[in-house]
Amino acid sequence: MKTPYTDIFAILKLNRLVSISISIGAFLAISYSAWLTYSIHNEALNNAFAVDANGNVLPLTWENKKDHLDVEVLAHLDNFHRYFYDLESGTYEKHIEKALWLGDQSVSDLFQQKKADGVYNRLLQYSLVQQVTQVQSEIDIQSTPIPFRTTTVFKINRGGITDTYELITSGKILQVERHFPKNPHGMLITDFYENSLQKVTD
């Protein structure tokens, strides 16, 4: 007795159905895995925990950089003006180097102009001490880049004589990548300009 042959078209149809089913199942499994990975990633970003010395789990909260943008801009401006204008013969080079990391070419150009005018030579020659006593900035964080106007008060000690000056500067703040420790706030001063300098009389 002969074994009946199965219809080749029925076999191909069955194979096709199995292939399509496996493909659909694989697609659904990959989609579910991708969604699960994405949701776990989001949950990890929004929730963080730390363990204290006693082994207790403490929940941490993430702070959005935009929530404290004004604080960071003001801190950046304060750091810059203290580095750039708080000078003495022994440390002014290190201060200027730190200040140059916080600004763009406009800051570098101003430094080169001051250097050409002999500002730093006089600092060394007469052992002057220029000390910043106050930095106050006005900013508008609604604008991009952020405009600022800063009033810096500093004293120049010439031996027994101390003179006080008020300097007004302006420019814009551009947000960039953070660079620890040279630019921790991720800000860059652009279009920097010294508007006015006047001697303050008591």
Describe this structure in words.
- The chain has 202 residues and is of the alpha+beta class.
- It contains five helices and seven strands.
- It has a five-stranded antiparallel β-sheet with strand order 3-4-5-6-7. The chain has a two-stranded antiparallel sheet with strand order 1-2.
- A hairpin with a 5-residue loop joins strand 1 and strand 2.
- The longest helix has 39 residues.
- It is elongated, with a radius of gyration of 32 Å.
Short description:
This protein is an alpha+beta fold and 202 residues long.
**Uncertain regions: pLDDT < 50 for 5+ in a row?**
none
- Shape, principal axes of CA atoms: elongated
Cα radius of gyration in angstroms: 32 Å
Structural class: alpha+beta
Q: Notable features of this structure?
A:
31% strand; elongated; 7 strands; alpha+beta
Topology:
Blueprint: H1 8-46, E1 48-51, E2 57-60, H2 69-85, E3 87-88, H3 92-100, H4 105-116, H5 119-125, E4 129-139, E5 146-158, E6 161-175, E7 187-200
Antiparallel strand pairs: 1-2, 3-4, 4-5, 5-6, 6-7
Helix pairs in contact: 2-3
